[in-house]
Hints:
It is globular, with a radius of gyration of 16 Å. The chain has one domain (38-177): Glycogen Phosphorylase B (Rossmann fold, 3-Layer(aba) Sandwich). Strands 3-2-1-4-5 form a 5-stranded parallel β-sheet, sandwiched between helices. By secondary structure, the protein is of the alpha/beta class. α1 (6-28) packs parallel to α6 (138-147) and α5 (113-126) packs across α6. β4 (130-133), α6 (138-147) and β5 (151-154) form a beta-alpha-beta unit. Helices cover 44% and strands 13% of the residues.
Amino acid sequence: MISVGLKRRAFGFGLALISGAFNLRRRLGKTASAGGSAPVVLILEPFGMGDVISLEPLIRNLHERKFEIRLSAQPAWRQLYPEPSIATWIDSQVPWTSYDSTRKYRWSSFWTTSFRNYVIQLRRFGRGAIGIDPRGDLRSILLLHLAGVEGFSHWGAISAQTCACPASPLKLWITATT
């Protein structure tokens, strides 16, 4: 049996409350998107090369359907995709991708200048976009909320009902454009 300690449960509950607050703020402050422009998708995949490679069919499909794709991933993986398919590449600067668990869970890493600049850059390119988190990582979902995405899709352990978010705005866009 897996036992989760009280501190981790409280931390997870706190993150869920923060996610709910961001979702409420996003719903109350929706902005009108520019009419006639291509829909924008922000994909957040800050982890390994295999994860970025596995996104290729999704990126190809979205590119064929005339979506503007913005991908945030580690800079080393930039060469995996040709320029036309990715409109904007944002170098990932998230602390939770470290293999060192002492660095991974340190709160001070969220207050660094590099992380703050990364969030500012995500907000510039993510505001009004559809956000995609392929893992369903709660930290990445919170980051997408900070980026100001209109809605988001995720595949992973966290269900849409847990996050109180739309089930799949991306699915609605794809259905509407076909």
